[in-house]
Amino acid sequence: MNSVFKPLALGLAVAAAFPASSAFAQSISVSTASSVIITAGRQPQAAIDVLADNVVITAEQIQQSGAASVVDLLQQQRGIEISRNGGPGNNSSVFMRGGNNTQNLVLIDGVRVGSSTTGGATWATIPLSQIDHIEIVYGPLSSLYGADAMSGVIHIFTKKTPGALNTTASVGAGSYGARKVQAGVSGSVSSNLSLALNVAHDEDEGFSATKTGNPDKDGYKLDSVSLRADYEVSKDLQFGTKFLQSRLNAQFDSGAKNDYSVQNLETISAFGKARINDIWTTSLQFAQSTDKTFTAGSYDPSQIDTVQNLITFQNDIRIGKDVLQLLAERREETVDTTTAGLNGDRKTDSLAASYVLKHQAHLASASVRYDRSSVYGSHTTGSVAYGYKLNDSWRVNASYGSSFRAPTFNELYYPGYGVASNKPEQAKNAEAGIYYEFGDTQLSAVYYQNKATDLLVSTNTCPVDVKGHPYGCAYNVNKATMSGLTVGANTRLGDWSLRGSVDIQDPKDDTTGLRLARRSKKHGSLAAEYTIAKAKIGVETVFSGNRFDDVANKKTLAGYGLLNIYGTYEVMKNLSLIGRWNNALNKDYELAKNYATAGSNIFVGLNYGFK
């Protein structure tokens, strides 16, 4: 049997060894028709009516996961692969449907986050301890969110407990000196005011990030706080504010004994929402996100800061069961670094409109957006989608949409590398899917083809009109096709909960005919969980085929399969014990060439007050 699939088979064998018993709350959650998703249409929609392929990671799954980071949690979801230069505190990338890390958009409580210099989110700074749930929506969403939403959107929601005031706390420890502590309080303070405050500290002594460099421990410390307040003047008028701040101090290997970075992430927003009449709801949000990184090591210290200011004015107009949405946005990016020539700012003004139709067995949506940048000019994107309910359980979907990614400040201005005339990347995506939902069972199969042009890559030989770049530059030169089939399934069978997914994909550089770096031809996951009295026992596997670490496809990263075992036990009301054994077979594998990954490791913790 292929070594990639051995943990899969062993995981099923371990799960099957436990006999059936009485039911208890499941941590492998199954979305139902009553589930509500916000991200797919920038408005609350019943999950059964959402035309875009999506996954929701619930609060219960996060609380009981024992995952070390957001990236580890995302690795278990369909359509997602990861790479990382060492342990959880090190630089990470998330690939959705074969796209680059810079080609997915990350939101925290509706606020865009990421670095304007490197592009993409700085994943290690996003604290898992502050997250309530995550919505993942696949496919192009530039017609709703603008630049960078080429492969999809990952929307992170911070903790908030509805209802009466409630206190939560958790503490845990594990291998590699891992220690976690969290405390929070949230709920209604009065009939009009609800608050949520959560603080957390995570740290890990870690292991050497590289296999060939300095054999020291590269650990991290992550401190975070989140705060949100919602005030309801009346049923027709609400105000609120949301705040998240984290500080990561992490060690890494680049040649010196004390390579380290200090990264700060902060989001803050203030919003108001008013129902003008029975059909018209309007909202206004002012927000700011900051991404600041100080790095010191074998080279000169550097500071790279990104500040984004955002204003969003949204109007939802109900026309029977349909919704017309009109949107205006302004985004201002400012970059301040120690690199001469890289500092600057740019502004983007946007207008968008969308229409969501629901008529008997027919579902449809259409959207268009116009973005005008002070740097790279104007860009228009659009999408259309149609779904038909064959009966109460089966539905078929088809969609087509365009998207784009804005060039980063590095690709535009970095001395000896950037080219100021670089254009945005562009893509056109077509997909079709079939969905089944009956009771606690969900099945989905989606085929997609995303063709990208004007990809920005590092080239050794620059065009003749580019001066002062003797060693190469970033330039719009490549084309790529990210195509594939993604299949997902969730079900409950008595005291068993089962979840699985598999992705068969072909992420190809059309210019060279080679596979895109660090992406596999196949990957997936499988989990089985069994409930017995007040305990739950589960096994999960994550597997991937081989990948190439470089664009030339010369450096191979072998395929791998990981087996994780976890369990929870309800000690008493509001208090539960969690345990997790990651990489139980002690698999030696790589997510990036010559960078180490964690071996067999355990984590044990206590959760109090989580509902």
TrEMBL record:
Residues 53-153 form the TonB-dependent receptor plug domain. It comes from Undibacterium rivi. Residues 1-25 form the signal peptide. This is TonB-dependent receptor. Belongs to the TonB-dependent receptor family. It is found in: Cell outer membrane. It is a multi-pass membrane protein. PANTHER family: COLICIN I RECEPTOR-RELATED, TONB-DEPENDENT OUTER MEMBRANE RECEPTOR. It comes from the Bacteria. Transmembrane segments: none annotated. Keywords: Cell outer membrane, Ion transport, Membrane, Receptor, Signal, TonB box, Transmembrane, Transmembrane beta strand, Transport. Residues 204-583 form the TonB-dependent receptor-like beta-barrel domain.
